[in-house]
Design a protein that fits this description.
- With 360 residues, the protein is of the alpha/beta class.
- The protein has 2 domains: 2-134 and 322-339, Rossmann fold (3-Layer(aba) Sandwich), CATH 3.40.50; 138-319, Glycogen Phosphorylase B (Rossmann fold, 3-Layer(aba) Sandwich), CATH 3.40.50.2000.
- It contains 14 helices and 12 strands.
- It has helices at 14-26, 42-54, 67-76, 90-100, 112-120, 146-152, 173-186, 201-211, 220-224, 251-258, 269-274, 289-301, 303-320, 323-339; strands spanning 2-9, 31-38, 61-64, 79-82, 105-109, 128-130, 159-163, 190-194, 217-219, 239-242, 263-266, 282-284.
- A 6-stranded parallel β-sheet has the order 2-1-3-4-5-6, with helices on both faces. It has a 6-stranded parallel β-sheet with strand order 9-8-7-10-11-12, with helices on both faces.
Length: 360
Amino acid sequence: MTRVLQLLDLNADFESESLADLLREQLGGAYQVARRSLRDNPASSVDAVLKLRRIRGEFDLLHAFSPRGLSVAAMVGGTIVYSPARFPTLQQIRWLRAVMSHREVQVTCPTDTICRAFIERGVDIDRCHLIRPAVQFAKIRRRRDDSLRSALGFSPDEHVVLAGGESTRHARHDLALWTASILHVLDPKYRFLLWGRGESAATIANVNQKSLKPGLMSIAQAKLKRRVRFEELIPAADSVLITAAGPIATLPMCIAMAAAMPIVSTISTTVCELLEDRHNAILVNSDKPRVIAQKLLDLVEDSSLQWKLADMARTEAYEFFSQTRLLSQFRALMVQTASGEKVELPQPVAGAGLRFHGRA
């Protein structure tokens, strides 16, 4: 049996939290997975290190999901799997290289953009692996839920534009809000739905209150007064708008593809790993709200194009973002790492008729 201890931040991002939960629940009987939650303060990290050193022999691997988790794992010692969901800073990469010079560390990256960032800055290519996120298809409900829409403040005849993912600096949801406000002025039926997770969510809510028309935006977690998974918002939305200006978490994008949602997105490195213009989404080579609004309006008015893009997006999501693929890759990684073997992950093969831009 392979014994794994997860080191997960108490305020972890959605992608890290989803990955940790999936591995904990679905790895199987040959794996024993426990978890230690890390608070955002130095005293908590020191306390975790002291306690984990006492039980060091009770697990084979430490699985860290953040720089804080990596630091704790490095001080505890032993074999480490590191799975960051966010794009690393130069300081974080330097720290990872320092840890790797003293500890056995295998790095898993959810996007090729993050993988390249590590490798180009000196992380050993043989210890850096691309494992894309997995969509939990059983949790996705595509059919419109009018009761949920009502709880969020939307009527059945309104068109709800959902901002893709958590509100972070790179996600630029302020741009998505301005785009939705233009559509709302043209036609009041257009409304904007914000998830409410991420460090920039409060700032965007403040901009909406001070500068824009009241009633334009609804913040899901504030309205429902509970933590909400991104999958839960799909039945309340009519389209998804992604306005990333840099690397973002791709799991919400994968979920939108799996739900066959019409997607309009600006162009960025992580977005272009998954989306292609007029193949499974509409891409906009501009950060001007009026241009993005026009592209979204064009897509909404062309039902045949919506169906074509959504069908291909759903097909590719089932092909590339399955739980089976992710679990098989992590099982191989953990067994090989714990036994000291060279890590070689099973790679998916694209189905007939699908484009394949080196995805793994």
